[in-house]
Design a protein that fits this description.
By secondary structure, this protein is an alpha/beta fold. The protein has a single domain, classed as Glycosidases (TIM Barrel), CATH 3.20.20. The chain has ten helices and eight strands. α9 crosses α10. It starts with a strand and ends with a helix. 45% of the residues are buried. The structure holds zinc ion. The site of zinc ion has 7 residues, from α4.
Length: 276
C-alpha cells in the first residue's frame, strides 16, 4: 500500500496513493482543518508544539540540568512535558473530535534526559516503580490507551527510527510490546531528501520488522520515505529495499514533489504487475 503525507489539503485529496496522511496538528504548533474522508489519516502531533513552548517556556519538557526541549535543540521543535495534565486533556479532546484513522507523531519524551520537571519528579516518586524508564513508558502507554478509546478508526504510532532492543524505551518511553495492545500500526520515518545512500533504510526497516515479528503481534509496519530532491526511478529503488518489511510506504510529499511521488507509485505498481 502506498500513501502520501502532506499538510496540503488539495494534495491530500488528489488520490495519488491508496490513501493520504494529512497534518491536522504539526510540531510547530499549527493546526489544519481535518479532512473528512475515509481515505485520509489524521496526523496529530502529541507533545511536539514549538508555539506553546515559546509562549509558555515552563510547559517544556526539561532535563536535570535545566535544559528545556525547545526548537533550537536536537529535534528541531519544542516539546511539552508529557505529564502536563491540561495539555494532555486538550490533545485528547481534539482527537476525540476526529473521525476515522489517526496517526500520532512526537509520541513520548523528547530524549533520554527528559523529563525531570518537578511534576515528573513528584509523579515518579509516587509511582510503584523505582525504574524511571519503566515509569516513563507507563506515562506514554497510558496516553496511547486513552487515545485508542477516542479513535474510531485505525491508530498508528510514530516511532523514533531506532530498532535496537530497549532503545525506544530509553529514548522516548515507547514500549512497542505494551503499545501493541492499543495501536494498529507503527510508522517509522526514514527520511533523507535524495537518498544518496540507502543501506540504512533497509537495515532499520528490517530491524522494526524483526521486532514486531518477535512480539507476534498484528501491528503493521509503515515506513515513511521522503519524496524530495529525487528521481522517481531512484525513489522506487529505495522503496523496493524496504517493501519486504513494510505493510505501507508513506511518502512525505510537498506540492512540488507530487509528480515525483505519483510517478514512483506508478512505476512500482507497473513492476509489481509484471509476472515472474
Ligand atoms: Zn515533566
Amino acid at each position: 500500500m502506498y500513501a502520501v503525507l502532506t499538510d496540503d489539503p488539495d494534495l491530500a485529496r488528489a488520490g495519488i496513493g491508496d490513501r493520504s496522511y494529512h497534518f491536522v496538528e504539526y510540531v510547530d504548533g499549527s493546526r489544519n482543518e481535518p479532512i473528512e474522508d475515509p481515505n485520509v489519516v489524521h496526523s496529530v502531533a502529541c507533545w511536539g508544539d514549538t508555539e506553546t513552548v515559546e509562549a509558555e517556556p515552563d510547559r517544556a519538557a526539561v532535563a536535570a540540568d535545566g535544559t528545556r526541549a525547545t526548537a533550537t535543540g536536537e529535534g528541531g521543535w519544542g516539546t511539552v512535558c508529557p505529564t502536563d495534565p491540561d495539555y494532555r486533556d486538550g490533545v485528547l479532546e481534539r482527537i476525540e473530535e476526529l473521525e476515522g484513522d489517526v496517526r500520532l507523531t512526537t509520541l513520548g519524551f523528547p530524549g533520554e534526559a527528559y523529563c525531570q520537571c518537578k511534576r515528573c519528579d513528584r509523579r515518579f516518586a509516587d509511582a510503584e516503580s523505582d525504574d524511571r524508564t519503566a515509569w516513563r513508558t507507563t506515562v506514554v502507554t497510558d496516553f496511547v490507551a486513552a487515545v485508542a478509546r477516542r479513535v474510531d478508526g485505525d491508530l498508528l504510532a510514530t516511532a523514533y527510527p531506532d530498532p535496537y532492543p530497549g532503545q525506544l524505551e530509553q529514548r522516548a518511553g515507547i514500549d512497542l510490546a505494551a503499545l501493541s495492545a492499543f495501536v494498529d500500526g507503527v510508522l517509522v520515518p526514514l527520511c533523507s531528501p535524495g537518498y544518496e545512500t540507502s543501506y540504512w533504510v533497509e537495515s532499520i526497516a528490517r530491524g522494526f520488522d524483526a521486532t514486531l515479528r518477535e512480539l507476534e503481534t498484528d501491528v503493521e509496519l509503515a515506513i515513511q520515505l521522503s519524496g524530495a530532491r529525487i528521481e522517481p526511478d531512484r525513489l522506487a529503488e529505495v522503496t523496493r529495499t524496504v517493501e519486504p518489511y513494510a505493510d505501507e510506504i508513506v511518502y512525505g510529499t510537498y506540492p512540488d514533489d507530487a509528480e515525483t511521488v505519483r510517478e514512483t507509485i506508478e512505476l512500482l505498481r507497473e513492476q509489481a504487475a509484471v509476472p515472474g
